[in-house]
Here is the input.
Amino acid sequence: MSREPYFKLGVTDMLGTGVGIAAWGLVTGVAMVKSGLPVPLAIFMSLMIYAGSAQLAVLPLLVAGAPLWVIWLTAACVNLRFVIFSQMWRDYFHGLPRNKRLLLGFFSGDVIFVGFMKRFPELKPAPGQIPYFWGAASTNWLFWQIPSIAGMLLANAIPLSWGLGFAGVLALLGILLSMINDRFTLLATVVAGTAAIATFALPLKMNILVAVLAAVAAGLTFETVDRNMKRLKARSAQAQDGNASEEHRP
Here is the structure.
C-alpha cells in the first residue's frame, strides 16, 4: 500500500501539521510522567489509548485525586467529537468488514479527518480513500508516539523551567487554527473558548468538560439548523419548478 499514490498523498498532507503534533506529543509524554505515572504505564497508556486530548484532560484530575467517574466522564466528553467523525466516516467505509472499520476508527484523528474531508469532499466511497487514510494515519501515529515516548523517557531530565507547557499550548493552537475551515467549526471554537473562560473557576478543571460539551452541542445545533435550511430551500425550489411547469402546460 505504501507504493500507492494516495498513500504518499496522505503522508504529504500530514507533514504540514507534523511539527505541531510532535510538540504536543512531547509535552504530553513529559506531563504524564511528571504527574506521577510510572514510565512503563505511561507508554502503555499512550500506545493503547492513543488520545492526546483525553490524556491531557484527565492528568490534572488524576493528580488532584478526582473521583474515577469524573475522570471517565471527562475523557468520554473530550472524545465526543469522534462520534460526529464516525458518522462521517460511515459514508465512506460502511462497506468494509466490522473489524477493519474498528481498526480505522482506532487510528483516526482530528487532523486526519480534516485532511481526508478536503481530499474527498463527496460522502461516498471512492478509489484511493483507504491508501490515503493509512498514509495519513501512519504518519500522524509516528509524529505522536515517537516524541511522546521520548518525553516519557526523558521527563526527569527535562526541567519545568523550559516552559514546555506553553510550547504545547502553541502547538495545539497551530493545529486548531489549521482545522478551522468552515463557519460551523469557527462558531463551535468560539463557543468552547467562551465557555472555558466563563467557567474557569470550577474545581478539578471542570471548565474543560463544560467547554467540550458546549462546543459539541453548538456544532450539532448549527449543523442541524443548516441542514434543515437547505431542505427547506430545496423543497421551495422544487415547488417553484412544479408551479412553473404547470403554467407552461397547454
Observations:
- Residues 206-247 form the longest helix (42 residues).
